[in-house]
Amino acid sequence: MPTASTPIWADQLAPSLDDFARLAEQAFADLPEEFRAAAGEVVFRIDDFADDETLASFGIEDPFELSGLYHGVDIGRRDSMGPAIEPSRIFLYRRPILDEWCERGDVGLAEIITHVLIHEIGHHFGLDDDQIHAIEDAAD
């Protein structure tokens, strides 16, 4: 049990991949119904880091620089007469998200996970980073 001089988190473990999956599922469930319905059948995957091939494809050397990734054909480019080639996937990378959470220190972990999740869903909707950032800036 922590004492007055011991931080309350001193005996806590870092959230696991399963913990992150639960937080991402809850973040998605908390989104407005219209947003969830528009997102459709997106598959979420939680990994510690992006794999080397993914990092290389973006020219990223430091795996802590990528906290999330959308992989698939965005809904604006799909053939309206047929299904997507493969399911759309959103990757959340645990270690970079934990690193950002620790560095910031001013928001909860669930808030950062929600932010990354919504950002990647924006890519699923066909938005690029500049468009997503403009929307985020307008909301602040």
UniProtKB/TrEMBL annotation:
Signal peptide start-end: none
Q: What is this protein called?
A: Metallopeptidase family protein
Checking SUPFAM superfamilies in the record gives:
Metalloproteases ('zincins'), catalytic domain (SSF55486)
